[in-house]
Design a protein that fits this description.
297 residues, alpha+beta, four-stranded antiparallel β-sheet, 11 helices, 10 strands, globular
């Protein structure tokens, strides 16, 4: 990479090397030793259902399409992607192979740090934007790419007692706020935004996903009328609160089946189902196969 004025492709090449080195032969969404910094390596095309917390991602190689609510988003190398809600989404990796895997860097968005950066640098004057979706995609400029390169450099060297991860993370949050995706980021930390209000309900659903819920209580927690709450929740997530709760249950059950090797009945009852038949039907409708096809218990 040129020292004085690296080109966009030079920066992306440098980042690809860093991610490939970190991932090795592993695939999937991979955590790292650097807080809030994750890497993704996928070698197969195809569809995947996932549940994600709010994130900022930089795509390094390959192409992916994500469906959220009634919208689709396609992104490729050099694109930055933001989601500002905890969401279930359907993604299709369209370009990936063993020789040329899909690669990306994903930063978990920390509302406390994001809020602090917004306040310190004068981005706290929120005005409701016409953001009809919880996801947005844009092209990263070279300065944004270089900020990602500084953050990813921590994968290769010790910090020697200097909290460079916090410094580099704050720089990325500042560049995010100053970009054309800044309004999506501000919705996370602005208490009067639709995203902040719906997040209060989502936090309750995530905490009590096994229990019966009262929609009126979620609306009250969001400080919205019942009709406004239902409308805004559906517009941002693409689901009703009850459907969202079901997705939470199914994603957790899938994790228990795949990674904790629970039996189908254990997974079903652990996430709040009282009927094994109901669980199997919901699981197949959502994931496209019966839970018994992935369970080894």
């Amino acid at each position: 990479m040129s020292i004085l004025r690296p080109s966009k492709e030079e920066i992306l090449d440098h980042l690809r090397t860093s991610v490939i080195t970190e991932a090795g032969k592993r695939t999937g969404f991979l955590g790292t030793t650097v807080p809030k910094l994750n890497v993704v390596r996928r070698v197969q095309q195809g569809q995947k259902l996932s549940f994600n917390e709010p994130y900022l991602a930089l795509i390094l190689q390959g192409t992916k399409k994500t469906y959220i609510a009634d919208k689709s988003f396609t992104y490729t190398a050099g694109d930055i992607v933001i989601t500002n809600l905890s969401l279930s989404s359907r993604t299709i990796v369209q370009e990936a192979s063993s020789e040329r895997p899909f690669l990306s860097i994903v930063l978990t968005l920390d509302p406390l740090i994001l809020s602090d950066v917004a306040r310190r640098y004068g981005f706290d004057a929120f005005e409701e934007a016409d953001n009809s979706s919880a996801m947005a995609v844009s092209q990263a400029d070279n300065d944004f790419l270089l900020a990602f390169a500084r953050m990813s450099s921590l994968l290769e060297k010790e910090q020697n007692g200097i909290p460079l991860d916090r410094l580099y993370y704050e720089e990325l949050m500042l560049r995010l706020l100053a970009s054309d995706l800044g309004s999506w980021a501000l919705e996370i930390v602005s208490p009067d935004s639709r995203v902040s209000k719906i997040t209060k309900a989502i936090d309750i659903l995530k905490k009590d996903y096994k229990e019966s819920i009262r929609i009126g209580g979620l609306a009250d927690a969001s400080n919205l009328s019942l009709s406004s709450f239902n409308r805004q929740f559906k517009a941002l997530t693409g689901t009703t609160p009850l459907q969202y709760q079901k997705q939470l249950r199914l994603h957790e059950a899938d994790r228990l089946l795949r990674f904790e090797k629970r039996s189908v009945s254990q997974a079903a009852f652990s996430v709040g189902y009282s009927s094994l038949a109901q669980f199997s039907g919901d699981y197949k409708k959502f994931f496209g196969q019966l839970p018994s096809q992935v369970s080894v218990g």
